Amino acid sequence: MQIILVLKLKFSAFKAFIFQKERILYMKKWFTIIASIFACFTLAVIMVIYIYGPNINFYLLPPSPERYGKIAIKKMNTYGYFTNSKAWQKTEKKALVDMHSVHNYDEADAILQKIIKIAGGKHSQIVTTKQITTETEHYEEPTIINDNGLVTIHEPQFQGNTQQANEYANKINDFLFKCKHEIKSIIIDLSNNNGGDMAPMILGISSIIPDGNILSFVSPDGTSERISLKKGTINAGGASIDLNHNIKLTNVPVAVIINKQTGSSGEMTALGLKKASKVKYFGQNSASFTSVNRSFSLYTGTTMYLTTAGVKDSKNKLYVNDPIVPDIQTNDPYGQAKQWINSFN
């Protein structure tokens, strides 16, 4: 009996040992499967980041100068306004070959600088970190003169921070609100305004532009994005601006002065004014940077400003680096503008 009991105990211990061993093997098997799945998932994430990370300027490792250049060329090819042209196709092919022999990022940037205007036109450019650090922020306030109800507003280019953007726009907005009952006519002087952020420029004078669609950004495939004014806001530009007053003075004659130095966002502001009910343009043809740029940050901090769309005014006329032609070509825009304004009296 004792022998049988011992045998039973040994058999039970053996079964427990086998069970424990099988359990360990089972756990090892699942651990291996889970580890393999995790490894595959990690590898897949790494591959996704490697392939698509550059789209948002994210890199696991520094790209080689060649890859850096090819990533930029791919962005030009994807988004550039003129990349359907034969000129670009030929240029892209040569640039990809040239990138094989670059030794550093500066050499890659030099190639990108040569080709970007083929992809995006005259408004496109490469701005390196060296160029950025040598440029100083320049902020110039708008000026306003009230001559017995004839108000002259000079809007200079805007290069500044958010606080300055609000100061710029509200200096004009506050004046128009304060003097709304005195104003008989307005001259908007955009001469020598070569761009920057259009939001403070347009919102500053938004009191004389009816709400609604003022511009459309039109892609090469014909798709468009409407740019609209609504209760003192605009769905474009960089700075976030809160106007102090939401007023409209849409029945006064508005003379717009432009010249050869009126460019980029200065031209966008001029085109936005075409929605005004009584408006006329004086001066010289503008600088012909009537297009929409999109900025792309590259690994080194270099910024690629690439034209991705043309612009339509509220009269449905399309501009793609075309000049704004004034109604009256003149070297005396103020004199001619005042003469036109006097015709309303």
What does this structure look like?
It is a single chain. With 345 residues, this protein is an alpha/beta fold. It contains nine helices and 13 strands. The strands form two sheets. Strands 1, 5, 6, 7, 10, 11 and 12 form a seven-stranded antiparallel sheet that branches. Strands 2-3-4-8-9-13 form a six-stranded mixed sheet, covered by helices on one side. Helix content is 41%, strand content 19%. A hairpin with a 2-residue loop joins strand 2 and strand 3. The chain is elongated and about 125 Å long. It has three domains: 52 residues; 60 residues; 200 residues, 2-enoyl-CoA Hydratase, Chain A, domain 1.
CATH superfamily of the largest domain: 2-enoyl-CoA Hydratase, Chain A, domain 1
- End-to-end CA span: 130 Å
Overall pLDDT = 90
In terms of DSSP E residues, the strand content is 15-25%
State the helicity in percent bands: 40-55%
Give the total of domains: 3
The geometry reads as elongated
Order of helix and strand elements from N to C terminus: HHHHEHEEHEHEEEEHEEEEEH
Q: What is the rounded Rg?
A: 32 Å
InterPro entries: ClpP/crotonase-like_dom_sf (IPR029045), Tail-specific_protease (IPR005151)
Pfam family, one: Peptidase_S41
GO molecular function: serine-type peptidase activity
Organism: Leuconostoc carnosum (strain JB16)
